[in-house]
Amino acid sequence: MNEPRNIPPLISLRAFETYSRHGLVREAAEELSISHTVVSRHIQNLEYFLKVKLVRKSGRNLVLTREGERYAEQIRRAFGIIASASGGLRRGTESALHISCMPGLATRRILGMLSEIERTIQVGNLTLQPQLLGAEMLKGGADVELTYSETVPAIPGLSAEIFASPRIIPVASPELLASAGGVRTLSDLTRLPLIHEKTSRQWEDWLTKAGMVEIPELRGVKLWQGNLSIEGARLGQGVALVSTLIARPSLEQGEIVEVLPSNVRLGDYYMLASDQTWKRAEVQKLRDWLRAVFAGE
Fold this sequence. Notes:
Arc Repressor Mutant, subunit A, D-Maltodextrin-Binding Protein, domain 2, transcription regulation, LysR-type_TF_proteobact-type, DNA-binding, Glycine cleavage system transcriptional activator, DNA-binding transcription factor activity
């Protein structure tokens, strides 16, 4: 007869895993639709079962202990395997792939190539979700995620691979550039109205890498999202920093122009998936297709 598995209560594991992602008991309680005291009790029950301290007090909050951090990473990976297996059963015998993707990449590049992706990776049911899910992928929200980051994404339970490393270029409408009377230097560029996302940090980093020593105060509207930034540039609202991968269709159509030649790279485009999902043939085909299509960006 098989020996019973020494597994903690799943409800306690779920509470601990949710807390470990948010870092706050209150936010874990909101996700699970239970009270914060119940979340705390589940974590205490898990510690009692394991005979190990997983969290400790730090001021008014709880933080993971070293053992808690290691255990949380393993539990997230285990829940990812469960979500992947459950998703496979829900899909039935028909092959399927669910892609979550940053909105700008989804609308400006991936959307127009969906039929080519379907033929290449040979799936019968392809879903494109223009929204980044991050760790929520592990709950069965998507199979893979396509995102841009200046550092390697560090999401426990997910592995990341680069599929493109494009230049980041300043773009504007032809009309705005013509009215500026020519832009020949970085100083000329900073005198134009600039479009920022959440802060001016990206512009500061770009100007530094482009060779500017003293960065002046940078003003301009904040549009919070790269997709809005390129639209703002197209509509003549200022100069936006965008990747050549996103900007290419609008550049080729003459809707925007590169304001000043440069060779600055700030980050990379990544494909994320759980270790289990990476083993799927269609996921590997998608990665190879992305690398081939965007290799010259």
